[in-house]
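Record type: monomer structure entry
Structure origin: computed from sequence
Chain ID: A
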Amino acid sequence: MRTSDFDYDLPQELIAQEPAEPRDSSRLMVVHRPDGRIEHRIFRDLGEYLRPGDLLVANDSRVIPARMFGRKATGGKAEVFLLRRLEPQRWECLVRGHRMHPGVRVVLGKDDTRVEAEIERVTQVGSRIVRFDQPLGPILSHLGVVPLPPYIHRELEDPERYQTVYARQDGSVAAPTAGLHFTPELMESLRKMGVRFAFVTLHVGLGTFQPLKEEILEEHRMHSEFGILPKDAAEEVNRAKSSGGRVIAVGTTSVRVLETAAANAGPGQTVASWSGETDLFIYPGYRYRAVDAIVTNFHLPRSTLLTLVAAFMGEELMKKAYSEAIRKRYRFFSFGDAMLIL
C-alpha cells in the first residue's frame, strides 16, 4: 500500500485558525457507512444520531506547556519541546538549536524560574533524551507554553480553548481535537437522553502527529504513546456491547486505546483494562474489534490519523467525504469541523 494513496490537495484557506464559538457550533459531516450517504449538520445535532444505551468514549488527556525556550550554556538560542516523561527528571524531547549533541547543557526559563538540562542521547527517531536538574511538574506552567500546531498562525486569547472541557490528566503535547466540540451543556443533554460517557487517557505525542515518510505504508513504525483504559471504563464498554449499545470513540486517540484494549480482551469481553505504551498503527486491512462509530476531525494528508479513518470507513468513502468537505468549505484540522462516521 502506497503512502501517496492518502494524500490530497487542501486549499490553505480551509485550515482553521481559530476554534468555533461556541464549541458546539462547528459543522458536523455525518457519514453513513452502509450506504455511503453524507449529511451536513451542526455539532450540537449529534444527539439526533445517538440512542439510549450508546457509549461515548473520550480522551481526558490535558495538553501541557511543552514548549520551552532558553540558551545553551555555551551561548546560542535553544528550544526544548517535551514529548513524554520517562522519569521525574528525564524526558524524551525534540530540540532546536545549533549542534544539540549529547553532552550539551541548556538553561531554560527565567531567573525566577529556571532549570538546567543536559542532552543524554539521540533516539532512533531523532528525538533526544534529556535530563533536567529537577522534576518539572511543579514548575512547568512557569517554564513553558502550550504548543499550537505549526499550521495555526494566530495566538489564542484563551489557551483553554485548546483543551477539552473534560481534560483532566496532564501529559499531551497536542490536544485530542475531536473533543474540542463538546460543551458541558451538550454532554448533559446527551446524558439525559440515555447516552453514557466513559473516559480513557492517551497522552498525545510523536506517534500521533509524526507524518508518514516511507513511501510503502506498511513500513511506517509508530512511536509509542502512553495510554490507560481504566477498569470502570472497560466495564462500561463491555456493558454497552453486551446490551446492544454502540461504542462511539471520540477521536482517533480514543480509538487506539480501545483497539489496543480489545487485543488484550479475554473470553466474553470486548476490551480489558490496561495501562502502558501502545504503538498500534491502524491502516486499511485492519479489523476493528471494539469501535462501532467515530467522532473525528478532518486530518492532515499523509498522516496515520487519515489511514485510521480510511480503515474504518473504506478508502473510497473516505476520499468521497474529504472531496465533499472541500467542496462544501468545511474547516480542517485541529480547530476545524467534525465528522461522525456511523
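Annotation 1: The longest strand covers residues 77-87.
Annotation 2: The helical segments are 140-143, 184-192, 206-209, 231-242, 252-263, 304-313, 315-327.
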